[in-house]
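Allow me, if you will, to draw on your knowledge of protein folds for a short while. I have a record of one protein: its chain in single-letter code and its fold written as discrete structure tokens. The full record is reproduced below for your convenience:
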Amino acid sequence: MTSTQDQLHCEYLIIGSGAGGSTASKYLVEKGKDVLLIEEGEHFKVDQFKGSMSKSLSNVWRNAGITPILCKSNFGFGEGKCLGGGTYVNGGLIWRTPITILKLWNKIFDTNQFSLENLEKYFSEIEATLELDKYNVNNYLQNKDSIKLDEIAKKYKINVATVPKSINSTVDQNKLQLGSPGLTKNSVLQKYIYPSIDKGLRLLTNCKANKLISSNGKITSVEVTFNNKKIHIFPKKVILACGATQTPMLLKKSFGNRFFESEMCVHLNLRIGVKFKEEMFADNGIMFTKQIQEYLDDGVLIMPTSFSKSSFFSSLAKLDNLEIKEISKQFNFFSNFVLQIQSKNKVNLNSLSNNLILTYKLNLEDLEKIKKYLLIFMEFLFSTGAVEIYLPLKKNFKINKNSDRAKFIEENVIEKNIEMVSVHGMSSAKMGINRSNNEIFNLNGKSFDFNNMFCLDSSILPTSTIESPQGTVMALSRSIVENL
């Protein structure tokens, strides 16, 4: 990489340091390539926040944790903005792409490119690098919420899986609370970015890509803001890895809204608070250790999630002070779970005066699916010791074992009364066989419009992955960059 005061030159410019960008950086640097990685956010050490969710949210998440999605429901989207991107703030789940999804992609494109046989070596390499399951989370007997899922699995004979996690310690600290990174996780920051820097990777943080500049079917330069100053980077090849909202935004800022119509696949996450008759001590556990996968082919997953006083009570702001005081006395009896549903409708990504505006309409089929699986999960919970359930609703959200659950759900689970979030954005600038309004990269991640531009983040995924997409993004990035 060469440079002048206002210009930088490099062989490969990677924009974004999350799952895709970090994977590409490591491979290219190991091959002796000249690589410049730029990241809009700051560089924070893995133990910077000592497990503090509030400090983490305000520093490493875009918009302090939640970007609003305009719809009738309360709906927010969360994404990381720091070195490591979303991989820095997530719970360390590294799922392989479900076989049903790989088969779907092969069917869509009439190919065998997305077979497990073709991706196996990349999944295995990533899992080895991140040391998946080095410490078996089943040994953590304090995870009573996960033990509940095992009870449910035994009683109802359903599929409950152990979650593959990049845990690197048995020390009971920094318990991978969502949004609170700590030393108990093998992050891409530790395993991909730092080793790449040692081998020659050039890195600029607090460096935002503003515009891609093109000529004769190539990206000739990229205008960025670095240290509050606009400079230009001249790469031979550009790899977009900005993420599901920021890659489309950069493309729209560069080439206009008419360049393509961007919409984003999401998972709907509905947080469920549960009071059990026995003490759970859920804040002592490590989140996401078990997952109900019985309904995966229907796009539905159920799992325990992060639990702390700050996160739990933030979801109970609708209660009056007396109710909150009473719950506080019984805090050890509570746990949190998430019902995650693959949304049929997509979030629209709109650019207004260079600002991102997200809009969404809940599909009626998804609404019925929410009702169906809330009823199923409530049955499971009440049969294994739950005495009260706090549903993700604005009003009339508390239900007990003696309630008419079907009537309650039908009357109260309506679009304008639902509260949900999403942290998995996908398919917003997706790959395809032919150039279309929303398929702008080929199956090798290469732009149809510019012969030196590629994309390696969750934007290019053909559909939702149902599971957390980090493992999928890393495997696809690794396979694509090998053929650059």
Summary: The mean pLDDT is 90. Residues 137-177+265-422 form one domain. Residues 364-383 form the longest helix (20 residues). The chain has two domains: 2-65+77-133+180-263+426-482, 137-177+265-422.
